[in-house]
Specification:
The complex is a heterodimer of chains A (325) and B (257). Chain A is of the alpha/beta class. Helices cover 27% and strands 27% of the residues of chain A. In chain A, strands 7-11-6-1-4-5-12 form a seven-stranded parallel beta sheet, sandwiched between helices. Chain A has a five-stranded parallel beta sheet with strand order 15-14-16-17-18. The radius of gyration of chain A is 21 Å and the shape is globular. Chain B has one domain (2-213): 3-Layer(aba) Sandwich (Rossmann fold), CATH 3.40.50.620. In chain B, a hairpin with a 2-residue loop joins β3 and β4. Classes of the chains: A alpha/beta (325), B alpha/beta (257). Chain A: One of its GO terms (biological process) is fatty acid beta-oxidation using acyl-CoA dehydrogenase.
Chain lengths: 325, 257
C-alpha cells in the first residue's frame, strides 16, 4: 500500500520553520512507505526545496508568486488547492502554527474532509493511523483516526522528532504556476511586537513570569535569562491582567499551550488554568517565595526564594556553563 | 447590520477533568460560555451599538446550552438559536458542527459573523473558518481589534505575537483572540430582559439535514489523562548553592541545557 502525502514547508523570513521538518517526519509515518511531497508557497521559495528533501521529502512542488509574498488565507488556499489538484494526495500535513491554524480548516472545508488539529504524535497501530492530541488544553488527551477521506492533520511544534538531515539525498524540485487572484484581505501593515528571536510556541526553553514579577520592568531579568538560554519569555494570566506584559505572552488554558524542553516558572503560583498550558513541558523548574505554591506540585525542581535574587544568579551560572562548554 | 455569533458551551476552566466509561465525566461540572466566544459576543454587541442592527447567538449542542445562550442574551444579544443535535448525532466532529452552522446561516444574509478562535475543550479552532468557507465568505482569525466603516472592515490580527493590520470588506467572519475587548458581566436588568428574548430551538430536520449529511469524518478512539506528574525535588541550602545545583541538574541529569 502506501499513500502519497503532501506536507507544507512553512517559510518565515526566508527560511523554513523547524515545525516543517517535524511535519515531514509525521508525513513519512502517514505515507506508510508511499511518497512524501513537500509543498512550498511564497515568493522565491523554490530554492528551499533541497532542504525539505534533506529532511525526508521525496520531491518538492513550489508555487512562486509575488502575490504569495505575505500569507493571506485566499492566496495560500488557492495555491495549495492547485497543488492538491495536481498531486491528488491521500494525506496532507501542516504545522499547527498561526498559518496552519488559519489555512488548514479552509482546505478541509474545500475537500469536504476531516482534519485532526494540533496532533502531538502519529503512529500506525492495528492497521490504523492513530493521532494523539491534547484536549482541555492538555488536561486530557484523545486518540483520533480518520474515518472518511484524506488523512489530514496539523502537528504541534516541538513534539514530533524531525528526521536526521541528510544533505546527500536528492529529489526533484518542480514549480507550479498558479494564477493567484481575488484576494479578499489585504495586509496594510505588520507590527512586530514579539520579543526578538524565538517564538514562544516553538521555543525549547520558556522563562515565564507571574504576578510575582510585580511590574513591566520586573520581566527584564527573565528576558536576560531567556537570552542566555536561547529561549522565549512567557507569562501567566495574572501577569497579563496586571498589564506587566502583552497578552500574546500568556500561557494557559486561555492563551498559548507550550511544551518546551525546559520551563522555568518565576513567581507563578500555578493556577489550574496555567498548569493546563505548560504541565506537559519536559522539565519544569519553579521559583517562588511561597513554599506552598501549587506550581511546586508539577515542578521537577524547585527553589523557594525571591525570583529577583534567584533569576540573575541563574543567568550568571548558565553563562559560566556556556563558557566552559 | 445582521450580526451572528457562533457560541460553544464548555467546561469551566476551573474544572479538573475526570474520565468515566471512556468519556469525559461531565457530572457535576460547571459549564460556561467558551471564553473566546465571550469576546465574540461582546464585540458583536459593541458593533451593533455603533452601527445598528441585530445580534443573534447560535449554538450547536444539547438542551443544556440554553443556559449559556440566556447569558449571552443577558449580556445584550437580541436573539438566540439552539440547534439541538442530541437525538440525531452521537459523535460529531468539526465537519459536523460546521456543516450544521453553515446550513443554518446560508440564507440569513449575515453581514458579520463572529466566533471564538478556539474552544478551550476540543481546541481545534476549525469551526469558524470552515463555516466561512462553506458560505464563501472571507475570514480573519485571532483578531484583537475590529473597526467597521460602512462596508469595509479594518482588522488587527494576532500572528504569534506580531500584529497584522488587514483591510477587507463585509460580509466577513472573524474569530476572537484574547485582548479584543473586556466582556461585560450581565446586568440584573439584562438578566430579566433575557428571559423574554426569543430563543429558538431547532433540530436537524428543521434544516433539511439528514444524519448522513453531517456524519463525522474523524473518530475519537480513546480519551485518557496524562500521567500524573510527581512532585519533584525542592532544593535546599544556601541560595547560591541551590542555583549551582539546579544548573548542574538541568545540565547533567535532565540534559535540557
Amino acid at each position: 500500500m502506501g499513500r502519497k502525502v503532501l506536507v507544507l514547508g512553512e517559510v518565515r523570513d526566508g527560511s523554513l520553520r523547524n515545525v516543517s521538518f517535524e511535519a515531514v517526519a509525521a508525513a513519512k509515518t502517514v505515507a506508510e512507505g508511499g511518497e512524501v511531497v513537500g509543498v512550498l508557497l511564497g515568493e522565491n521559495v523554490s530554492s528551499l526545496g533541497s532542504e525539505l528533501v534533506a529532511y525526508g521529502a521525496d520531491r518538492v512542488v513550489a508555487v512562486d508568486s509575488d502575490k504569495l509574498a505575505q500569507y493571506t488565507t485566499d492566496g495560500y488556499s488557492q495555491a495549495l488547492m492547485a497543488v492538491i489538484g495536481q498531486e491528488n494526495p491521500e494525506g496532507l500535513i501542516l504545522g499547527h502554527t498561526a498559518l496552519g491554524k488559519d489555512l488548514a480548516p479552509k482546505i478541509a472545508s474545500k475537500l469536504g474532509s476531516g482534519l485532526i488539529s494540533d496532533a502531538t504524535s502519529v503512529e500506525e497501530a492495528g492497521g490504523n493511523l492513530v493521532f494523539t492530541r491534547p484536549i482541555y488544553s492538555g488536561k486530557a488527551f484523545e486518540k483520533k483516526v480518520v474515518t472518511d477521506g484524506i488523512v489530514f492533520a496539523t502537528v504541534r511544534p516541538n513534539n514530533i522528532a524531525p528526521l536526521e538531515k541528510d544533505g546527500s539525498r536528492s529529489g526533484d524540485v518542480s514549480t507550479l504556476a498558479v494564477d493567484v487572484k481575488d484576494l479578499r484581505t489585504v495586509i496594510k501593515e505588520v507590527v512586530r511586537k514579539a520579543t526578538e528571536g524565538v517564538d514562544l510556541s516553538e521555543a525549547k526553553v520558556v522563562i515565564a513570569g507571574g504576578r510575582g514579577v510585580k511590574s513591566e520592568e520586573g520581566f527584564e531579568p527573565l528576558k536576560e535569562l531567556a537570552d542566555v538560554l536561547g529561549g522565549a519569555v512567557g507569562a501567566s494570566r495574572g501577569a497579563c491582567d496586571a498589564e506587566y506584559c502583552d497578552y500574546s505572552l500568556q500561557i494557559g488554558q486561555t492563551g498559548k499551550v507550550v511544551t518546551p524542553d525546559l520551563y522555568i516558572a518565576c513567581g507563578i503560583s500555578g493556577a489550574i488554568q496555567h498548569l493546563a498550558g505548560m504541565s506537559n513541558s519536559k522539565i519544569i523548574v519553579a521559583i517562588n517565595k511561597d513554599p506552598e505554591a501549587n506550581i511546586f506540585k508539577v515542578a521537577d525542581y524547585g527553589i523557594v526564594g525571591d525570583l529577583f535574587e534567584v533569576v540573575p544568579m541563574l543567568t550568571e551560572e548558565f553563562k559560566k556553563l556556556k563558557v566552559n562548554a | 447590520m445582521n450580526i451572528y455569533v457562533l457560541m460553544k458551551r464548555t467546561f469551566d476552566t476551573e474544572e479538573k477533568i475526570a474520565i468515566s466509561g471512556g468519556k469525559i465525566n461531565e457530572e457535576g461540572a460547571e459549564f460556561i460560555i467558551n471564553p473566546y466566544d465571550e469576546y465574540a459576543i461582546e464585540e458583536a454587541i459593541q458593533v451593533r451599538d455603533a452601527n445598528g442592527g441585530e445580534v443573534t447567538v447560535i449554538s450547536v449542542g444539547n438542551e443544556e446550552g440554553e443556559k449559556q445562550l440566556r447569558t449571552a442574551l443577558a449580556m445584550g444579544a437580541d436573539k438566540a438559536v439552539l440547534i439541538n443535535i442530541e437525538d440525531d448525532v452521537e459523535d460529531g466532529d468539526q465537519y459536523t458542527t460546521a456543516k450544521i452552522l453553515a446550513e443554518y446561516l446560508k440564507d440569513k444574509e449575515a453581514d458579520l459573523i463572529l466566533a471564538g478562535n478556539v474552544a478551550i475543550d476540543g481546541g481545534s479552532g476549525q469551526v469558524g473558518p470552515r463555516v466561512a468557507d462553506a458560505l464563501d465568505m472571507a475570514y480573519v482569525t485571532t483578531i484583537t481589534n475590529l473597526e467597521i466603516n460602512g462596508s469595509t472592515a479594518t482588522v488587527t490580527r494576532d500572528v504569534e505575537g506580531d500584529s497584522e493590520v488587514i483591510e477587507t470588506s463585509l460580509p466577513l467572519l472573524v474569530t476572537a483572540q484574547q485582548g479584543l475587548n473586556e466582556p461585560r458581566y450581565p446586568s440584573l436588568p439584562g438578566i430579566m430582559k433575557a428571559k423574554k428574548k426569543p430563543l429558538e430551538e431547532l433540530e436537524l430536520d428543521d434544516l433539511d439535514l439528514e444524519e448522513d449529511d453531517v456524519e463525522a469524518k474523524t473518530k475519537t478512539i480513546e480519551i485518557y489523562l496524562p500521567p500524573q506528574k510527581e512532585a519533584g525535588r525542592v532544593l535546599e541550602g544556601e541560595l547560591a548553592d541551590q542555583v549551582k545545583e539546579l544548573v548542574n541538574l538541568l545540565h547533567s541529569e535532565a540534559k535540557v541545557v
